[in-house]
Amino acid sequence: MSRPLSLNAWARAAAALAVAAAGVSAQAQSSTPVKVGLMLPSSGTFADLGKWTNNGFRLYVEEQGGKLGGRPVEYVVLDDESDPSKANENANRLVKRDKVDVLVGTIHSGVASTMAKVARETNTLLIVPNAGAGEITGAMCAPNVFRTSFSNWQPGYASGVLAAKKHKTAVTISWKYAAGDESVKGFREAFEKGGGKVLKDLNLPFPNVEFQPLLTELATIKPEAAYVFVAGAGQVKFVKDYAAAGLKTSIPLYGAFITEGTLAAQGEAASGLQTVLHYADGVKNPKNEKFIAAYTKAFGSAPNLFAVQGYDSAQLYDVGLKAVKGDTRKKAEMIKAMESAKIESPRGPLSFSKSHNPVQDFYVRVARGNQNVMTDTIVKGLNDPSPDCKP
Ligand code: PHB
Predict the structure, then answer these.
(1) pLDDT tens sequence across 82-112
(2) Which of 39, 77, 94, 387 could make an S-S bridge to 105, C-beta 3.0–4.6 Å?
(3) Fold of 153-277
(4) CATH says 32-150+284-360 is which class?
(5) Whose CA is nearest to atom 9 of ligand 1?
């Protein structure tokens, strides 16, 4: 009969077993796919934006041999329809039924705000690849919530800086929801700081495209400039309607997104429009050159801002996963690595503020043919101060 183990021997045996078990589970982790919940629109006004974001994310993963942080990637894809009323159910389905490791989404501010609420409630990591709702990195900011795109205030503010250089009065036109309201707020802040005055804010509900009455009113007010926030398929019709109404030559049009990804559909109506965003055709850096070549090869058309934002969302998640060697249970360590990430983005250097919103340069672009050609940098390292974020 073998001798009973001494207490010390028991402790040593238990420790050895624990080490073996941890080793096995680390092993299992590395071959188990990490589950990415891609909650993006594939129908409705923002369908193309969803597709470009999705393409960008997958391109980065493919470049890593289909792995992030050493683990294969499995996607769970859901069409959010850019419908805020379905967002709670959709996000909860991904988290609770599909048990995703990370939520990635979305385009529409209202839907993304609900995703942020669900992410907070369930302590799920969320990476927002577009939607600019201020509260996501403002009043609702949280350690597990990141954004790789912009806050609505940022492109609005940078556009106001540009418009104030040439004009004293402006009228704004926007969809009446968080993105429109906040974009106009940012524009007004910089435009009025620069000595201009916003005479009137005109609105219509998302995603309506009955622009005619607003354009008639704009023509009556006769400001020196107009600033617009509409997006996706809506921006194609807006830019065409604006030109058809004869306003393009009489009231210079400013906007951030209005020509991004849609120049082919807008044709001559968009030609010469000046816009301000954190990406442009002709941004010169080695990463961008490689990115454009790889994206074009994979998808048969040139990338745009939305593809860049999707690509960078995957880059950011990879930073977190690599820091913990793919062990998603080490959430605090992942978050720490992501907070201090310095990402080489096709847009230029990308880092994050204390509220997890990008700090980035904003470029002036002019629409020529099928390109939004970079002509200048209007604001360097723009940081949304996010005063309401108390992490
Ligand atoms: C938003 O809802 O935050 C949004 C949507 C489309 C854009 C930009 C912002 O192009």
Answers:
(1) 999 999 999 999 999 999 999 999 999 999 9
(2) 39
(3) Rossmann fold (3.40.50)
(4) alpha beta
(5) 131
